[in-house]
Structure formats: C-alpha cells, structure tokens
Amino acid sequence: MQILFDGDPGIDDALAILTLLREPVDVLAMSAVVGNVPVETGFRNLRDLVALAGREDIPVFRGASRPLVRDYVFDPMVHGVDGLGGAKLQPSRAALQEEHAAIALARLLAAASEPVTWVATGPLTNVAMVLGLDPSLVRKVRRLVVMGGSTLRGNVTPAAEFNVYVDAEAWRAVLASGIRPVMVGLNVTHMVGMRAEDFAAAEQIDTPVGQVAGTMLAYYRRVSTEQDWGAPKLHDVVALLGAVSPELLEVRPAFVDVETGSSLTYGMTVADDRAAADRCNCDVAVDVDADAVKRRMLRALRSY
Ligand code: BDR
Ligand code: CA
Fold first, then answer.
1. Are 20 and 304 in contact (CB under 8 A)?
2. Which numbered atom of ligand 1 lies nearest the CA of 162?
3. What is the pLDDT of residues 28-40, one digit of tens each?
4. DSSP of 192-233
5. What pTM did the predictor assign?
C-alpha cells in the first residue's frame, strides 16, 4: 500500500505519525498544513517526528499557511504553543524541501505507479489545493481517509468539528471534486479515549520515542481533565489506522455537505444516510474497534 500523509501536528497527529512509521506500508511523502499550529510549527514538528522515527528518507513538505478563504486564528489551548505539549525533539537534519506541498503532492500523485491511500488528519486545505491544481488526480487516489466532521455535535462550536471549522471551504471543494472520502468524525473518534491503563502502558516505554509520547500524552491528559472532556481522544490515530486497516472501521454511505454560509453553524458536516446510493458522496465511519486502535498504537510506540 502506498500512502500519503497530510496533517497539522498536533499531539494526536504526532501519535498517528509515529504509528504510521511502524506500519508495513510505503509512505511516499508527508505534508504539513495549517491547523492545530501555524504551518511553520507543524512543518518543523513533522520533520522532527520523522527524524525521531529514523525515517528521514521520506520527503516532508510544507503546505498551506492559511485556509482557502477565511483567516486563520491560532489557539494553543489543546496542543500547546509548540503543538506537542512541550515535548522536546532533536531537530531534523534532513535536507529542507522547498517545493510547496500542493505542488509536490500533485507531482507525486501524477507519477504514482498505482492509486494511493491518502490520509488527512488536519484541515483539508492542502488536499483541496492539489485537487484544484489537477482535478484528474482524483483517479490516482484509491481512498482518501479524513479525520474531520461529526454526525453528532462538534467540538469547536456545538455544530463544528475543529478540522472542518478551520477550512470548511476546503472540505466543500474536496467533496465537489468527485473524490469519495471516508469521513472519520467525532462520532467515532470519541469512542477511542485513553484510559488510565492505556496511559500506564505508554508510560512504561523507556525510549526516546516513549519519552516524547509520554510528555505529549501527559499534556493532553491534563488539558482534557481541566476542560472536563473525559478520556483524551485519539482522533487522528483512528483515521490513520482506518486508512491502513479499513476493517477497523464500519462505514455507511451517505450524502455529506458542509455548512459555509452560516455564522452560527459554519463548518457543520451534515450527513444524510437516507440518500439514494447514486447520490452518496462519502463513506461515513459509524463504528470502530477501539481496543484494536489503542493496541496497535501502543505496539508501534513500543517497537522503536
Ligand atoms: C481534530 O482537531 C485537532 O485538534 C486534532 O488534531 C484532530 O485532528 C479533532 O477535532
Ligand atoms: Ca490533527
């Protein structure tokens, strides 16, 4: 399986990245997008995480620094100012890729020998830009698996989930491109929370990767407790493992659209699972094997 990873690291993105880099897949490239942190910070985190994983052979690109239409507003509350809850990483020594992610990914997709699996754990700005550059690239994507949206309530506002809220226009553009994403929304990621025994298992990993993961998880746990959010959720790990191992997710076809016009519900995903089959444009995740996701992530973290 050939994979492209796009994200906004971000603590749960970072855990997804460290998990991905131990999976038996061929990672063609990774890219950073504005979201949890400004893109400069996310790009640095991504490069340093790839270095920590010993995978500097993978090209890493910097993508969009702002959403397609709206302004970006940085809020450090959930992931910290550095995006990684204060975890200290050795700076990557890999050569800096100067090419913009959208151009690089369009180039790589066009050249791909087989359709690729694309996983996106941040706002869809980069994905929308690639498909805007060359709409025919839809044919080169086997599956686009996206963490974002919700069939229930949001987390930034009562209606909107964070990744969609940052760039709802990008989501709309991706849905209009004819690609049929797998939407891994809060309705399933909220089933995958870190419990006390999961934290205990992570804390026992006495390696550089274990220390980074431990610092990030401790920060994430503190914020979740302070905000009364319950068990910290592994949103992006669910999407990542759902991309690598589709059997971990149960999906249902639906027609999905995204609100971009209302100030009250901007970024809300509306999923109609009563739509006729030929109108469905999305496969919406409705259930997940939560224990398997946590087991696979912990196994990956232990394996470094
Ligand atoms: C999503 O928003 C970010 O805070 C997380 O990294 C995840 O991708 C959850 O709403
Ligand atoms: Ca993310």
1. no
2. 10
3. 999 999 999 999 9
4. -B--HHHHHHHHT--SHHHHHHHHHHHHHHHHHHHHT--SPB
5. 0.98
Nearest-ligand number for the alpha carbon of 6: 2
**Closest listed ligand to the CA of 78:** 1
Q: Mean pLDDT across the stretch 11-38?
A: 98
Q: Can you give the residue range of the structural domain that contains 134?
A: 2-302
pLDDT category of residue 161 using cuts at 50, 70 and 90: very high
Number of domains in the chain: 1
| Torsion (CA) 146, 150, 154, 155 in degrees, nearest 10 | -40
What is the per-residue pLDDT for 168? 98
The CATH number linked to 208 is 3.90.245.10
Looking at the CA of residue 10, tell me the nearest atom of ligand 1: 6
Evaluate: CB of 216 within 6 angstroms of ligand 1: no
Residue of 121, 186, 268 to test ligand 1 pocket, by largest number of atoms within 8 Å of CB:
121
